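Action item from last meeting closed. Structure (237 res):
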């Protein structure tokens, strides 16, 4: 018995479909033996549902699946289409994961290979650096020895010059002392108590003290230079 027009309008308004109506639609497919022999548009108008709903019912595999909920109040698709879409999505994600795993494996292989190449190049650079350093040391060693000898020679010459200058200054001071003694003790010169003579003698004595102090300072500096050179020579050895 076909539903009345009022029933069709009510079904369209509520967007619902009873289990009995779903079974009838499923039976229409079996009776007519095929998807094309029965027009889905005709049945959709007959039962007040969409043609897609009719086709979804036909795609159900068993009578048990036909009696499942077919339509919701919000107009969602059939559960069969949801399940199918879910399977498609899962398969797609699985394929994506497989592809991602494959890409990750390739990336790991490339990373491992790149790291191995980098380590090899680093070792080669280290070996070259060591060889270059050794060659540089061999080439520079004679130059360093020559520089050391030159420094020693210059310091020794400087020390000799300083000693000669100190000796010359000492001799000059001794000559002045002898001249002053001769001047003070000579019979041709009469020592007086005048201020002019006393001040001249005092100035000469101060000059003598300054010269002696200068000589002592130079000797001390020569000793410091010689002692520092000896320490550097011991360290280099």
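Sequence:
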């Amino acid at each position: 018995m076909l539903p009345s027009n009022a029933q069709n309008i009510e079904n369209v308004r509520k967007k619902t479909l009873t289990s009995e109506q779903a079974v009838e639609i499923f039976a229409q497919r079996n009776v007519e033996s095929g998807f094309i022999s029965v027009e889905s548009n005709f049945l959709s108008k007959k039962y007040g549902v969409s043609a897609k709903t009719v086709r979804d019912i036909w795609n159900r595999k068993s009578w048990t699946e036909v009696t499942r909920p077919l339509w919701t109040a919000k107009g969602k698709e059939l559960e069969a289409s949801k399940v199918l879409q879910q399977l498609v999505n899962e398969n797609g994600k699985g394929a994506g994961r497989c592809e991602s795993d494959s890409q990750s494996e390739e990336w790991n292989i490339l990373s491992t290979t790149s790291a191995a190449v980098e380590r090899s190049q680093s070792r080669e650079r280290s070996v070259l650096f060591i060889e270059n350093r050794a060659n540089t040391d061999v080439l520079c060693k004679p130059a360093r020895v020559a520089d050391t000898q030159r420094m020693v020679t210059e310091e020794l010459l400087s020390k000799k010059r300083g000693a000669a200058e100190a000796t010359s200054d000492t001799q000059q001071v001794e000559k002045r002392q002898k001249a002053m003694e001769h001047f003070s003790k000579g019979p041709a010169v009469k020592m007086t108590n005048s201020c002019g003579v006393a001040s001249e003698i005092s100035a000469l004595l101060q000059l003598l003290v300054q010269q002696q102090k200068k000589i002592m300072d130079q000797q001390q500096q020569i000793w410091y230079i010689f002692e520092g050179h000896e320490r550097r020579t011991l360290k280099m050895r």
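Note appended to the action item: The CA atoms of residues 20 and 67 lie 8 Å apart.
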